[in-house]
Amino acid sequence: MKHDRIAGILLIVFAAFIYWQSCRLPEPLLQDKLGPDALPKLYAIILGSLGLIISAKGFFKATEKNKRISPDWKTWWHDYRFVVFSFVMFFVYIQAMKYAGFLIATLLYLPAMMLVIGSRNKKSVLTAVITTACVTLGIFFSFTYLLNIFLPSGTVF
Known about the structure:
Layout (H helix, E strand, L loop, with lengths): L1 H21 L15 H23 L3 H4 L5 H45 L4 H25 L11
Helix pairs in contact: 1-2, 4-5
């Protein structure tokens, strides 16, 4: 269960990063019992605990069958290439949101993700574009005009 150990350790590192970043949030106001850092810290603690459980399971459940498996990178890439593409596209989307804003970045990101994960025929492309336009514009107008919460506008546009 080498993969469980690695996944658990990565979850613990990610949880520590989330906790560290949440410590940088502003202090709570006098009338607030919980500040803006409470929920991210709670999620980080839960995520770190789950990572610890997964790591422990990987360390203690190593069987003879799992010791004989050698990683075949071509098979691994074939099985997980969409996961890797999804993570890369997500981080590019987050960076693009800083420059292009929520509206443009999301209008480009969502159909691309739908095509990477789903089927790639003419009907699915049309469905992805229509779904993206409706969902993105719905979220944008709901947050901006109904809730008065402004989404990132970007620096370029």
